[in-house]
Design a protein that fits this description.
Structural class: alpha/beta
CATH superfamily of the largest domain: Hypothetical protein af1432
Number of domains: 3
Helix content: 40-55%
Oligomer: single chain
Shape: elongated
CATH topology of the largest domain: Hypothetical protein af1432
Number of strands: 14
Radius of gyration: 25 Å
CATH architecture of the largest domain: Orthogonal Bundle
Distance between the termini: 26 Å
Strand order of the largest sheet: 8-7-6-9-11-10
Length: 498
């Protein structure tokens, strides 16, 4: 769904309390116009933080909601990204739930790490801030609290604290009126969680912004406005704990009333630990971050930032940058020219680019079996802009750039869904040809042209200097290409550049 003006994009956010959908139109100036919004309080986190699993009936509610959301996205022809946060991260059966959603709704639900969640919230909340302005961002979810420092809309530090309003309510049973001793225990627990997960930074000089329904509700209650001081929040915790559920329900919607004491205690602990004097509540967050990134996809700004991060990682391991850049350039040229043949979604292109740039980083550990070291280094790296699942696919595509071919029987591929395995095989077949075309590491290839015929793909290579090693190696990789794409690969040198 590239090109064309007024693209339609969609963001789905499966949180701990609710699932949400937002569909928006991207205008030519980059601004977003919301076309449709839904929120379903299906409580994906119900019981997860106590039992470690998502219950069958919760899973069923989630799957049927995702089917409805997917149908809406199809009706609008929206390019969609769906993410799941801490409830799915921690549910032992989270991956099974993702598989069920894919089978029932045709939706790729990504389970994102706490850091990626914090990064997306930053983009969503701070979008359009002055480039040099500093801020601190808090987002209190049901299962975790994200903390970020940022300059402009780019995060400089990201932390995820495993502490949220639903999780604390479940642990301390603070749905009803809360006794003094229980409130003291709750406060101590929250303070300890922040001490363990984040450094105590005196961040008070940078203005603090709070995204999430919990912060909006607590700040509104504490100050009757959108900004509250730390003292006001502390007073609000005492006042809310002393109320009965019925009293709380008169001030908040029923779901919020159950978890608002815990939410307020988390906010108080965060502000105390980070030495924040005051906080301003905003109405945007994760979903907005997803939409902003999707809207930038065409301009390539979000993608360019994640490419920068990939190159930075390569440099850390002293990769052969001219070779890596050349292989990535050739791999993307092949990918773009063979689009009708491979039929992969836009995200796959970024996975290929990252794998191509990083395919040799394992040399930093040892030249022997470097492809296996490459897998390990990428799988454990921090790659902004890639969900955990995508980073795993980058690692696998890079790992299979040489030696064994990727097949269902391989131990490290058993976990992949059929769609993921097919994606990995296609990207590996393309990457191996691109890598072969710079076998000498001398970048002789200037340009390539392809022609897709019924039984074959013809690849013509324009080059300077000797090309024997490249053509010999590319011919060796033609076997995998033929198996994956059901087309022979015919490679030859062309006199003129494409």
């Amino acid at each position: 769904m590239h090109g064309g003006h007024h693209r339609i994009i969609g963001a789905i956010d499966v949180g701990t309390n609710a699932a949400r959908l937002e569909i928006a139109r991207v205008h030519l100036d980059g601004s977003l116009e919301t076309l449709h919004q839904e929120r379903d309080p299906i409580r994906p986190g119900e019981g997860v933080f106590l039992t470690g699993r998502m219950a069958k009936e919760v899973e069923d509610r989630l799957v049927s909601t995702m089917r409805r959301y997917a149908a809406l996205c199809r009706r609008y022809r929206a390019q969609v990204r769906a993410v799941g946060t801490s409830a799915l991260r921690e549910a032992k059966n989270g991956r099974d739930v993702v598989r069920r959603v894919r089978a029932a709704a045709g939706l790729d639900l990504e389970i994102v790490s706490g850091r990626e969640e914090a990064r997306l919230i930053c983009v969503g909340v701070l979008h359009g801030r002055a480039p040099g302005s500093r801020s601190v961002l808090l987002d209190i979810g049901g299962g975790s609290t994200e903390v970020a420092t940022a300059v402009g809309d780019r995060p400089t530090n990201l932390w995820s604290v495993p502490l949220g309003a639903v999780r604390l309510t479940q642990i301390f049973g603070t749905g009803a009126r809360v006794s003094d001793s229980r409130l003291a225990a709750l406060r101590a627990f929250a303070a300890e969680a922040f001490r363990e997960a984040t450094p105590s930074l005196a961040l008070s000089r940078a203005p603090a912004v709070g995204s999430s329904g919990t912060i909006e509700a607590v700040v509104g209650f504490a100050s009757d406005g959108r900004r509250a001081t730390r003292k006001e929040i502390a007073r609000a915790v005492d006042a809310l704990a002393a109320m009965s559920v019925a009293e709380r329900r008169r001030k908040f919607d029923p779901r919020r009333a159950e978890i608002v004491v815990a939410g307020a205690a988390v906010l108080e602990a965060a502000m105390r630990h980070l030495a924040l004097e005051a906080i301003t509540a905003v109405g945007t967050g994760l979903r907005n971050g997803i939409l902003v990134e999707l809207s930038r996809r065409d301009e390539g700004r979000g993608a360019a930032e994640s490419t920068e991060a990939v190159v930075a990682l390569g440099r850390r391991f002293q990769f052969d940058e001219p070779h890596a850049t050349q292989v990535a350039r050739l791999a993307l040229a092949l990918y773009d020219r063979l689009a009708r043949l491979h039929g992969l979604p836009p995200r796959a292109r970024r996975i290929l680019e990252a794998a191509a740039l990083l395919h040799d980083v394992g040399h930093a550990v040892s030249p022997q079996a470097h492809h296996k070291h490459t897998y390990y280094l990428i799988a454990n790296a921090d790659l902004p802009g890639f969900a955990d699942r995508e980073r795993e696919l980058v690692a696998l595509v890079a790992r299979y750039h040489r030696r064994s071919h990727p097949g269902r029987a391989r131990r490290d591929l058993v976990e992949l869904t059929a769609v993921e395995l097919a994606t990995v095989r296609k990207l590996v077949a393309i990457l191996r040809v691109a890598d072969a075309l710079d076998r000498s590491h001398q970048q002789p290839v200037r340009a390539i042209r392809t022609e897709v015929r019924r039984g074959a793909v013809e690849l013509r290579v324009a080059a300077r200097g000797a090309l024997d090693l490249e053509l010999w190696d590319a011919a060796r990789e033609a076997g995998l290409f033929q198996r994956v794409f059901a087309r022979r690969l015919v490679i030859g040198r062309s006199g003129r550049a494409a």
